[in-house]
Amino acid sequence: MNIKNKKEIIRLKSIQGQENKCQITIRDFPVHKHRESYKFLHRNKYSPDLIMDKLWSCKGNDSIFTSTKGFIKKKYKCPACSFIFETIHTNDDVIIAEINIEAENCFKLEISIPMVVCKSCNKKLILRKREFTDQMELALSDAFEKSKITY
Ligand SMILES: [Zn+2]
Questions:
Q1: Mean pLDDT by 10 residues, the chain (151 residues)
Q2: Fewest CB atoms less than 10 Å from the CB: which of 102, 113, 132, 134?
Q3: pTM for the complete prediction?
Q4: For residue 39, how far is its CA from the centre of ligand 1 (angstroms)?
Q5: How far is the CA of 119 from the centre of ligand 1 (A)?
């Protein structure tokens, strides 16, 4: 029996994208196979900007990002211990975050980007700066493009 239109979910073990200083590896990304390419599981759930939204809002990921404070002079506060950074020194580092868009299809992001280490609690923190979030989004797009994943 030949079942047409039966779409099986497969997992792409490791796909990579890069933009400027940001490199992202996506592990176990769920897709549908479609001839020689792949398709996103849902048109509206796996776009780079929505994945980024999810990254910022996922429980357990919240403590890896610094939040800004103050209107005139932006300050960064460690979300884990509330330490206020007077100066920021970044180093390239890697952080791993789990993205849970649909419980059964969660996947991981390994993000290599400039980060700060909290002087008080030693947590690695991504700065939620415009330039870095833009880079992360573009790196995700790059990974999808290279892997021929389309809508
Ligand atoms: Zn801290």
A1: 65 96 96 89 88 80 68 77 87 90 91 92 83 91 94 85
A2: 102
A3: 0.84
A4: 40
A5: 7
Asked if residue 106 is part of any domain, the answer here is: yes
Instruction: Measure the CA angle with vertex 42, ends 104 and 18; round to 5°.
Output: 90
Answer yes or no: are the C-beta atoms of 38 and 149 closer than 8 Å.
yes
Residue 55 in tokens = 């990254």
- Helix (H), strand (E), coil (C) string for 21-84: CEEEEEEEEEEEEECCEEEECCCCCCCHHHHHHHHHHCCCCHHHEEEEECCCCCEEECCCCCCE
How far is the centre of ligand 1, averaged over its atoms, from the C-alpha of 68 (Å)? 14
Q: How many domains does the chain have?
A: 1
Residue 4, in any domain of the structure: no
